Amino acid sequence: MAWTATATLCCRLIRLPSARHPTPSRARCSAAQSPDAVDKEYADLNLRPLYTNRGQHLRIRQHVNPLSSSFSEPTEPPEWNEVFEDPLLPLMVDIGCGSGRFLIWLAKNSSQRRNYLGLEIREKLVERTQFWVNELGLRNVHFMFANATVSFEQIISSYPGPLSLVSILCPDPHFKKRHHKRRVLQSPLVDSITKNLCLGGRVLIQSDVLEVAADMRERFDGHSDILAHVDSVDKDLHCDNEGWLLDNPMGIRTEREIHAELEGATIYRRMYQKIRDASH
């Protein structure tokens, strides 16, 4: 299927050497090694001098119950022309953006003309990340305190430009079966992502927990009439025999990805591309 110029612009991605098969003998990282590895990966952002202004070691809850009544109301969208210099550019949304370094790095280093939006349910992380954005003077990236499960549709449907890429990277696994309903990727969110993506737009999912990755995969595989796995339309991206991407397509690893690979874990990835609208 021929891509539009917008789809081609919004979906071109950087390639990295394969991170699919970590070395089995890799020793489990120490508590000291892991932060050092993150700092090294994101060294060019030069965020360390800003830590003195907005503490490096914030006390952040690692697990949040998204079903709490305090997260049940959708978050209002921002004034897009106030948060982005050009709100008509293609938009990438990172759901569960954590500390935000991954998205800040892309906003600063990517060759693509694109806006970046991070959605995070832990408010203190959003406050610190937006502080960094303001200090760095970036006008193509913005972070919001929001429960994406209930807020994605209201926020993204108001964006004036095309939605070109959505990433859900190592979300909270909520291991216990009775807590699976707390996982960020529920059917309404999958439906909203699929509906709002521009033609040729992509979705990247990944986790170091196979059960979580498989659950996300099953949900997006259920939209095969609209979404195709990327290896069927982009021959530069390759999968293993089980259909997981061999390479990280983003040019930078997330913090969780760094931690997991230091511990010898495997990262399971899938990427989908929108090949037709639902009405076709």
From TrEMBL:
Alphabetical list of Gene3D superfamilies matching this protein: Vaccinia Virus protein VP39
Keywords assigned: Methyltransferase, S-adenosyl-L-methionine, Transferase, tRNA processing
Enzyme Commission number(s) of this protein? 2.1.1.33
GO molecular function per UniProt: tRNA (guanine(46)-N7)-methyltransferase activity
Catalytic activity annotation: guanosine(46) in tRNA + S-adenosyl-L-methionine = N(7)-methylguanosine(46) in tRNA + S-adenosyl-L-homocysteine
Entry keyword annotation includes Chloroplast: no
Name of the molecule in the record: tRNA (guanine(46)-N(7))-methyltransferase
Q: Which organism is it from?
A: Urochloa decumbens
